[in-house]
Amino acid sequence: MQINFCTPQFFFNISQKFPFIVYDFRENQNGYLKNSIHITNLDNIDTVADIQKHFQYPEQISERQKLEKLFNNRKRNYNFFVPFDTSDMFSLIFKHKIKSEGSQTSDQFCIPIKEVISLSQEITKITNKNNMFQRKNRAQTMILQQIDDQIVEDASQQNLFQQGNKQTIISSRRLLELHETSISSGPKIKYRSVSQPQILDYGDECFYSNSEIFDTMFKAYQVFQKDKIRQIYILLDPVQIIFANYPFLNYSIVRNRGFLDKTFPNEIIEKKLYLGNGEHAQDTEMLIDILGITHVVNATVEIQNYSNQLKYLKVEIYDEPQVYIKQYFDQVYQFIENAFQENGKVFIHCAQGKSRSACFTVMYLMRKNDWSFEQAYDFVRECREIVCINDGFINQLID
């Protein structure tokens, strides 16, 4: 039996096209993802019905009805399990080891259940409550970030990651401050990057550790598998990390802001490269104010450039096998590279986001990562399932 894990990027891309439901096992909810059911106090569960007794639905009747319908159709939908709110040493080490077991080019990981159980037990032993690292880090809610302030560089902590490069570990005291994010043209929205765990008591037992929450969630996951539910994924990243990278996914804050029913381009490279269609291209408010896009590759004849706030490269080609698209590869590649060097974000589109724009996206990944066509094509299709490059373009990519 295999256990499926995924990254926030996978969740983001799936949520744009397919029906899904989120089972949230966090001890307290400081913000939540769309389509979330909060589940707490699980004990002696043998069936899905046992788990359902612990569902905590939103107060809004319409939201509850929507979630009940999604749950009834769970065998046909994507099901995401959320165990972690913020990071502690258990979740940090667990995420690193799961990713090292899986494919380095994928945003989903399939691990044998025996390995997951063994890994969880091993890390729990390292970070048990009598261990100074776990107690210190959970009390402060340590979190992995690319920030240069309040860095903890204790050598023994770094060794837990078993990596050659030092990691930056930041205290939540820095991240608990309120941030402002402009979304669309509406008012400023404030959200918390990280929340402290709930205090239950004093002393050694004052916090639930992420290992305990993971064990509870994992039991529920296995019950779902016995019910023959196939599309089940465990989100590796804590919810607050997801909100830091995708603030518009914090449903508790932005559900009344008017853009939650929008569809977004699919993310190919995290927070850098996006692939989509002509409707996405026209929604410049979403591109600029929500995703932070700065550069656009417009691979069409029929669609105009919509904004003077964006830098465009317009490649006027038709989606026909006989078109010599290869002549534009160098120009498009350099345009994307220049954008990244300027710390920009790139959106590539054609009319449907299936062939012309996908061809340029695959080309970029092949050149940048020294990937084969098959490797790059599979990666892009994993991010955006409707991708279907015409045979003439494929032959030019392979040559």
UniProtKB/TrEMBL annotation:
Residues 326-384 form the Tyrosine specific protein phosphatases domain. Pfam families: DSPc (PF00782). It comes from the Eukaryota. The keyword Ligase does not apply. Residues 264-399 form the Tyrosine-protein phosphatase domain. Keywords: Hydrolase, Protein phosphatase. One of its GO terms (molecular function) is actin binding. GO terms for biological process: negative regulation of actin filament polymerization. PANTHER family: CHROMOSOME UNDETERMINED SCAFFOLD_164, WHOLE GENOME SHOTGUN SEQUENCE, SLINGSHOT PROTEIN PHOSPHATASE HOMOLOG. This is Uncharacterized protein. It comes from Paramecium pentaurelia.
